Amino acid sequence: MSVQGEIKRITTHTLQSMKQHGEKISMLTAYDFSMARIFDEAGIDVLLVGDSASNVMAGHETTLPITLDQMIYHAQSVIRACHRSLVIVDLPFGSYQGNSKEALNSAIRIMKEAGAHGIKLEGGEEVCDSIKRIVGAGVPVMGHLGLTPQSIYKFGTYSVRAKEEEEAEILINNAHLLQSSGCFSLVLEKIPAALGAEVASQLKIPVIGIGAGRHVDGQVLVMHDMLGITKNFSPRFLRRYLDLYTGISDATKQYISDVKSRDFPNENEQY
Ligand code: KIV
Predict the structure, then answer these.
(1) Active site residues
(2) Residues near 253 by beta carbon (within 8 Å), at least 6 away in sequence
C-alpha cells in the first residue's frame, strides 16, 4: 500500500512521509480547470501552478511578465478542479523580492483569493527572511534552486547549473538554509544528477527534481512538455508521454476539411 493510498487529500505531511518511506513524489504543472481535473483524477500527488504559465499559456519568452493577479486567476481554476492533489502556486517575479512584508502579502493573496495549499518561490539565502515570515503566518513554502528562470537575465542561458564545485557548494548551503528557514520541500532544476542525489540525501525535506536526476525524492515536468504540446524544446531531461501537438493539429485539419466538404455536420448531428 502506498503512503497516500488510504488518505483523501495530499498534504505537506504526506510528502514528508513519502520521502521517509522511499515513495517517489509525482508533480506536474497545471494552469486551468480541465487539465487539472484530469491530473487530479489520475492521481498526481502535487500540482504546481507554475509561473511557466507566462511561457506556455501567455506566449512570453520568459517567466518575468506574469503578474500576481494572473497567477491567482490560474490558481483559482486549478483549485476548483482538485479534490486530492496538493496545489502549490508560484509567487511571480516582482511579487516577493522587494522585502519580506511584500512577500507575505503576496503569499496571503494567493492563499486567500485562490484557496491554494502553499506557495513556491525562487532563490537561496536572499529569500530566507521572506520564507520565515510566510511560514510564520502558517503558509507552506516550497523552495526552488539550480536553474531559477526568474533570474534568466542574470544567468544569460538556460544551461545546466552548478556543474563547478564552487556553485555546487553554494547550492548545497542554500538548500540547508531553505530547510532551516521552514521550507517543506525544495525543487531543484537542471543540475547534475550527482548533486541532486547529494542534496536529497542531506536534506530531511522532500527534494523534487526537474532535470536533477533520478535519485531525488520526486519529479516535476511542465504539462505542455510532458504531453508534447510544445514543439522545438527537447532538453535531455524531458520525456514526452504523448505527441499532442501532432494529434491536435491532425484533428484540426480533419475538422477544417469536414466543414469545407460539408461532411460535418451530417444528418445525425443536427436538430
Ligand atoms: O514554473 C514552473 O513550471 C516551475 C517548474 C519548472 C518547477 O517552476
Answers:
(1) 189
(2) none
Measured distance CA(50)–CA(118) in Å, rounded: 12
Q: What's the CA angle centered on 182, arms 72 and 165, to 5 degrees?
A: 100
For ligand 1, say whether the CB of 225 is within 6 Å of any of its atoms: no
Task: Note the pLDDT tens digit of each residue in 139-182.
Answer: 999 999 999 999 999 999 999 999 999 999 999 999 999 999 99
Specify the DSSP class assigned to residue 110. Answer: I
Please return the burial class of 234, using the count of CB atoms within 10 Å of its CB with bins 0-12, 13-18 and 19+.
Answer: exposed
Name the closest-CA residue to atom 2, ligand 1: 50
Distance 12 CA to ligand 1 centre (A): 18
Q: Whose CA is nearest to atom 4 of ligand 1?
A: 50
Question: Is 15 near ligand 1, meaning CB less than 6 Å away?
Answer: no
pLDDT for 207-248, tens place per residue? 999 999 999 999 999 999 999 999 989 999 999 999 999 999
C-alpha cell at 76: 483559482
- Give DSSP secondary structure letters for 175-207: HHHHHHHT-SEEEEES--HHHHHHHHHH-SS-E
Read off the pTM: 0.96
